[in-house]
Amino acid sequence: MSGTISRRQVLRGSGLAVATTLLSRFPAGASSLPVLGEYDVVIVGAGASGMTAALTAAKRGLSCVVVEKAPTFGGSAARSGAGIWIPNNPVVLAAGVPDTYAKGAQYLAAVVGDGSSPARQKAFLDNGPQMIAFVMANSPLRFRFMDGYSDYYPELPGGMPNGRSIEPDMLDGNLLGSELAHLNPAYLPVPSGLVVFSSEYKWLNLAAVNAKGTAVSAGCVARYLAATSAGQKPLTMGQSLAAGLRAGLLGANVPVWLNTPLTDLNVEGDRVTGVVVSSNGVLSLVRARRGVIIGSGGFEHNAAMRAQYQRQPIGTSWTVGAKENTGDGIQAGLRAGAALNLMEDSWWGPAIPLPDEPYFCLAERTLPGSLIVNQAGSRFVNEAAPYSDVVHVMYDKNPAAPDIPAWMITDQNYRNRYLFRDVLPALPLPDPWYQSGAVVSAWSIEDLAAKTGLPPATLRATVNRFNGFAFSGTDADFARGKSAYDHYYTDPAVFPNSCLAPLWEAPFYAYKIVPGDLGTKGGMVTDERARVLRADGSVIAGLWAAGNASAAVMGHSYAGAGSTIGPAMTFGYVAANDIAATA
């Protein structure tokens, strides 16, 4: 569980802590540095967890400041689809979803198991709905039920086949004034002339072959025209979430200092009393009378940390997390004595290493007419399974990693029917994709195998067997289509199994698949009050953590859409409330 650290992890963490302490740039302490300010609470990171924490602290009457490394606010949350997974929240209950606290607790326990402590799971379930109500009461954010977006394991006790995730409603960017220019851009910008919600992308993928897809596309255009005619700057998904939280901070007069990276924690005695930051190139101290909350994200862009803690092959070029996420907060916590856990894991997902940036595959690997093979030319996983599970299999099935890179195989019929990233159906894929080696095409399966280095006879046999499953509707090898979740991103016009269609029309395509991620999920061990713990379970006074700087309450699993942001915001809220309640 997250509160249980192995001897190896402790020794490894202790070794790094000793090394970094010896190399500290503050041998005489930070007390001699210029003081930029003194607040009740200092929050590190202007992402979802940090801004929620700051909003909570301010509304509890505490003075606070947010220090942010990037020149923008929003972090990885601003780049995301901004799904939020919180059982029994007021938005789904208002939508008539038959969720209950008991169902959520039963499901979370079944999914996470001993991957985190029961106390932390209970804290998430207890505080998540309150956090959503609080955010709506203290910011312009409103939320929508993601109707039909199934929990990732809906067949488990307490699982919801129709889902319990929510996402931000449309927000007018004008609310931010000039601060809108500092919003971190989306990972994939919404196409010009549309206002799209995350839950609508499944239908946009099908717009060429499905009446509802066509209607949803038209609705996205109408929504855009209505908003712009009213003089609004419409924001959705992660852009809406980050902008709404920032608007809440503006209303609460909470300063957010951009371009102000954390360099270290200030520790006096055995208590964290502030942070050392770099401001305009000058090291300075920001004092915290009551506490420091670290919400600085994971370490997905720190090659040395990924090499130290995670399995090969790994790197920093396959992640879609914010580029500033280099583990600064985690390293500072480690130097202060924090225990770490789940450092080997990430919020994984199959990704195509396109030349401009990796593309995190959601619908593409699930839509009928696609399959994924390893370097032996064989299928090895249910392609429609939760994205984190697919990558776990890529790493776990064989330690020699013959499944990395894998290849997703499709045909021209698939290309004619479905959107692929932002390329409309039937249109040619961009030349740079081919030139980079991320995509290969050929007029026969055998030639495709030759171009990708796969065994031709095995790949042909794999495709033939898969085609047989498509005609029968039953995947006898990996049960693709058995779970309700498998069908979320599929084509309802395909029978008898909307997940399965044969590959038959040349040319054929192969897309390189690598273990991408939305961010790392390991970090400082925290308790149910979001307080940072040492390896012996004792509390580091004055230090709290939330989001991907802390070890995830989800453990090694992933309960549903928004299992990153939901807990991040919740434990930011928990941390600030705990500080307010603690003398």
If you had to describe this structure to a student in words, what would you say it looks like?
Its EC number is 1.3.99.4. Pfam families: FAD_binding_2. It is a single chain. With about 575 residues, the protein is α+β, with helices and mostly antiparallel strands. It has three domains: about 35-185 and about 235-345 and about 520-580, FAD/NAD(P)-binding domain, CATH 3.50.50.60; about 190-235, no CATH class; about 350-515, Flavocytochrome C3, Chain A, domain 1. Helices cover about 30% and strands about 20% of the residues. It has helices at about 5-20, 50-60, 75-80, 90-95, 100-110, 120-140, 200-205, 210-230, 235-250, 305-310, 330-335, 385-395, 410-415, 430-435, 445-450, 455-470, 565-580; strands at about 35-45, 65, 85, 145, 165-170, 170, 235, 255, 260-270, 270-280, 280-295, 340, 345-355, 360, 370-375, 405-410, 440, 510-520, 525, 530-535, 540-545. The strands form five sheets. Strands 1, 2, 8, 9, 10, 11, 20 and 21 form an eight-stranded mixed β-sheet that branches. Strands 13, 14, 15, 16, 17 and 18 form a six-stranded antiparallel β-sheet that branches. Helix 2 runs parallel beside helix 17 and helix 5 crosses helix 6 (about 120-140). The longest helix is centred in the first third of the chain and has 21 residues, at about 120-140.
Mean pLDDT: 93
The rounded Rg comes to 24 Å
Tell me the major beta sheet: 8 strands, mixed
Query: What is the terminal separation in angstroms?
Result: 30 Å
Number of domains: 3
Helix content: 25-40%
Predict the CATH topology of the largest domain.
FAD/NAD(P)-binding domain
In percent, how much strand structure appears in the residues?
15-25%
Coarse structural class: alpha+beta
Oligomer: single chain
Number of helical regions: 17
Superfamily (CATH H level) name of the largest domain: FAD/NAD(P)-binding domain
- Low-confidence segments, ≥5 residues, pLDDT <50? 1-28
Total beta-strand segments: 21
What characteristic shape results from the CA principal axes? globular
CATH architecture of the largest domain: 3-Layer(bba) Sandwich
Q: What top-tier CATH class of the largest domain fits best?
A: Alpha Beta
